UniProtKB/TrEMBL annotation, chain A:
<keyword id="KW-0813">Transport</keyword>
<comment type="subunit">
    <text>Complex I is composed of 45 different subunits.</text>
</comment>
<keyword id="KW-0496">Mitochondrion</keyword>
<keyword id="KW-1133">Transmembrane helix</keyword>
<keyword id="KW-0249">Electron transport</keyword>
<keyword id="KW-0812">Transmembrane</keyword>
<dbReference type="InterPro" id="IPR008699">
    <property type="entry name" value="NDUFB8"/>
</dbReference>
<feature type="region of interest" description="Disordered">
    <location>
        <begin position="166"/>
        <end position="207"/>
    </location>
</feature>
<keyword id="KW-0472">Membrane</keyword>
UniProtKB/TrEMBL annotation, chain B:
<dbReference type="GO" id="GO:0005743">
    <property type="term" value="C:mitochondrial inner membrane"/>
</dbReference>
<keyword id="KW-0813">Transport</keyword>
<keyword id="KW-1133">Transmembrane helix</keyword>
<comment type="subunit">
    <text>Complex I is composed of 45 different subunits.</text>
</comment>
<keyword id="KW-0249">Electron transport</keyword>
<keyword id="KW-0812">Transmembrane</keyword>
<keyword id="KW-0472">Membrane</keyword>
<keyword id="KW-0999">Mitochondrion inner membrane</keyword>
<comment type="similarity">
    <text>Belongs to the complex I NDUFB4 subunit family.</text>
</comment>
Length: 207, 111
């Protein structure tokens, strides 16, 4: 379709009665392709216009219902049911099987939204309220649990890392002359071994 | 399947519609026949073109041409009503001011 438009533009430029740019403005359209009567037009007001529009779109006059005109620019395009191509019979011999559409069949305004890769309006396996309950219930539960986890943290006891000897007094920029202050040390690992060594030491001293 | 209820945005398949089984008046049957007639004519046209051994070009679909034309030329029938003006203002004018304000204040704060 874009190729057709470009061809018209190029043709208008090369062949137009007025030279150059003004040829583009003169609404020249190629003689090939659909006539004016076969293209979409303005919103139909009289029953004759409706019948003609229905015939144009290959629909029954009773089935044809133009999209209600609130000024958006739909013209006389028919309002077809908002059903996705997912819902069409997969076993029928369509002319275009991937689109599940026959040649010449009127196309929904949002057809490119309703193709089989996109929006699916077919019935869901579970009904709406069950789906809502499940989804929001799960999300709500997870949010609650994460909130509680932030409020009441629970982890293995940890302490700052402790270094032997002068507890990195020099490395931390302490004065070499001054004595390091005594830091309180907690005996975590090896406390049992240390007390056993102390006992042996004490026993050894005793004769 | 008797208690099947469809989701609000989904539809009931035609084969599960009870109206198809219980309310087949003559008018509806006639309507279905007319629709089938239209379908058959279109199918015939397509098949004639498809299986024509002398055909060298692509088969043009007028419904597709009309759809493309309708989608690309809405402004021919556009009218400035309350609804269209509101939508145009909401999506076209307000974001300009909002974005200007947001970006301006954001940058001033960051500096």
């Amino acid at each position: 379709m874009a190729a057709v438009g470009f061809r018209n533009w190029a043709r208008a430029l090369s062949r137009g009665k007025q030279p150059g740019f003004s040829a583009l403005l003169s609404q020249v359209r190629a003689a090939s392709g659909p006539s004016k009567g076969m293209l979409p037009g303005p919103y139909p007001k009289t029953p004759e216009e409706r019948a003609a529009a229905a015939k144009k779109y290959n629909m029954r006059a009773e089935d044809y219902e133009p999209i209600p005109d609130h000024g958006e620019g739909y013209g006389d395009y028919p309002q077809l049911p908002d059903r996705s191509q997912h819902e069409r019979d997969p076993w029928y011999s369509w002319d275009h099987p991937d689109l599940r559409r026959n040649w010449g069949e009127p196309i929904h305004w949002d057809f490119d939204m309703f193709i089989r890769n996109r929006v699916d309006t077919s019935p869901s396996p579970v009904d709406w309220h069950t789906m809502c309950k499940h989804l929001f219930g799960f999300i709500g539960f997870m949010m609650l649990m994460f909130y509680l986890g932030e409020k009441f943290p629970s982890y293995q006891p940890v302490a700052p890392k402790q270094y032997p000897y002068s507890s990195l007094h020099l490395e931390r920029g302490g004065d070499p002359e001054k004595q390091p202050e005594e830091r309180e040390r907690t005996n975590v690992a090896g406390s049992k071994a240390k007390s056993a060594a102390e006992e042996r030491h004490a026993e050894g001293e005793r004769p | 399947m008797a208690d099947y209820r469809e989701a609000p945005l989904a539809t009931r398949p035609k084969t599960l519609d009870p109206a198809e089984y219980f309310n087949l008046s003559l008018d509806q049957r006639r309507a279905e026949e007319e629709r089938a007639g239209l379908r058959a004519q279109l199918k015939r046209q397509y098949q004639m073109q498809l299986n024509n051994p002398h055909r060298k070009e692509l088969i043009e679909d007028p419904a597709l041409t009309r759809w493309v034309y309708a989608r690309t030329n809405p402004y021919n029938h556009f009218r400035a009503t309350k609804k269209t003006s509101l939508l145009g203002g909401l999506f076209g004018v307000v974001p300009l001011f909002v974005l200007y304000y947001v970006l301006k204040t954001d940058r001033v704060w960051m500096r």
